[in-house]
Amino acid sequence: xxxxxxxxxxxxSVLAFQAAVKSGPEQVKMALSDENPAAGLLECGVDEVGIxxxxxxxxxxxxxxxxxxRINGLRDSKQLTPERRKELSDRIKERALDFCIATASLxxxxxxxxxxxxxxxxxxxxxxxxxxxxxxxxxxxxLPKLPFxxxxxVKGDAKVRVIxxxxxxxxxxxxxxMLIYHKQFPHYGFxxxxxxxxxxxxxxxxxxGPCPVHRKNYEPIRILLSPAGPEQQLKFITAELHFPLxxxxxxxxxxxxxxxx
Length: 261
Fold this sequence. Notes:
Elements: E1 2-4, H1 11-23, E2 43-49, E3 58-64, H2 82-95, E4 98-104, H3 106-112, H4 114-127, E5 135-139, E6 150-153, H5 156-159, H6 161-184, H7 190-193, H8 199-208, H9 219-224, H10 230-241
Parallel strand pairs: 1-4, 2-5, 5-6
Antiparallel strand pairs: 2-3, 3-4
Helix pairs in contact: 2-6, 3-4
């Protein structure tokens, strides 16, 4: 059971896992009719959080639940209050057979793009497990390359308990990181908006510009850094994101228009 944030000390384990990926069996993308794997098969749920945010690293979690230690209340993390998410996250860590929370860094997002970095974070989360899963169930429709049979399930975080558990672990870990970034860069409302481009966040970007944890290759941020004037930049961004700024910045809340992720 672990929390993984990629660093130089992780290089050997990452390289070993990538080698296992190359030599491992082909992945299995099963039909949706195969909703329940065979009895006794270790199910690993995987989910990400932060892919749509404009700041910092992306998080992924992998989780193998213990069928003999039921956890009530598991569901899509976005449907839970922060207090309930934290409570369930602690319970999952206590009762799960195995779990790992991993990240792909801001630098890796800029190098690989956010989708490639998300696949890398998912690989790291699965690779950080001590147990070998019989099947990996991944939320969404993008399948990272893994050395185990795997399938994707659209809206899996709302349908499959083990994916819900992974969703909760990843969400709580990232939200805690956002509180740290909020203390370092208090102008943008990261504690409330989690880095998503709310009206308040956009207005703060217009006033202060991007901070060091903003994803510089993210299109709205790239436009803010372009030679065009601030007003033209902001009009382009808000039009693209369908967030018209109809109120003055002083009336906006940091969480106004937040999209959970």
